[in-house]
């Protein structure tokens, strides 16, 4: 699969991803279809982000004879940002079924647009070698930066964190890159505009509300 890469920021370039994202953007897309689309794009992001994971070999036996197999060496942890990050989690678990899931609760205050941390399931001691941080939408970048800071404070080095997101604003992506240079980012697409109230345009709308069908009537 082709991906447009700038330093460690990788923007997917694939017709199936583009088509799925276009469906997600539409207001007529149902919550069920939205969840399925987020899952499908997340799966592609995870596969692409896993290309350079270190492998280790082992000796095995097929019904015909012996073989040398390989398995992923680092222990992967998943850290979805609540609540929208939950929409990406099942896709990642289909590839890493034994990965622990550490939920991070962060919301954006509506007036100041600043991130507010309210929950962390990170254990006291680091128990994984690498973290996939799952945040479907990067708008101002504040939530992603707050989540990254939580994972770094936990003890995971920046080089062992991969940020996966479905859509980002250019401004938000620039902020993340500026505050955390060297971070590996995988994103399906980047929109150029960020509105005055911190919404990606044309964007997807509120990802959490669209995932879980909690849109107010005026937003439908």
Domain module count: 1
The CATH architecture assignment turns out to be 3-Layer(aba) Sandwich
Number of strands: 13
CATH class reads: Alpha Beta
Largest sheet: 9 strands, mixed
The percent range for strand residues is: 25-35%
Query: Which bin fits the share of residues in helices?
Result: 25-40%
Mean of the pLDDT scores? Answer: 92
- Which structural class fits the helix and strand makeup? alpha/beta
Overall outline: globular
Tally of contiguous helical segments: 6
Q: At the third CATH level, what is the topology name?
A: Rossmann fold
Keyphrases for this structure?
31% helix, nine-stranded mixed sheet, globular, alpha/beta, 220 residues, single chain, two-stranded antiparallel sheet, Rossmann fold, 32% strand
Write up what this structure looks like.
GO terms for molecular function: GTP binding; uracil phosphoribosyltransferase activity. InterPro entries: PRTase-like (IPR029057), PRTase_dom (IPR000836), UPRTase/APRTase (IPR050054). Residues 11-214 form the Phosphoribosyltransferase domain. Belongs to the UPRTase family. Its cofactor is Mg(2+). Helix 4 links the parallel strand 9 and strand 10 (161-169). The mean pLDDT is 92. The chain has a single domain (2-52, 76-215), classed as 3-Layer(aba) Sandwich (Rossmann fold), CATH 3.40.50. The chain has 220 residues and is of the alpha/beta class. The chain contains six helices and 13 strands. Strands 1, 2, 5, 6, 7, 8, 9, 10 and 11 form a nine-stranded mixed sheet that branches. The protein is 31% helix and 32% strand.
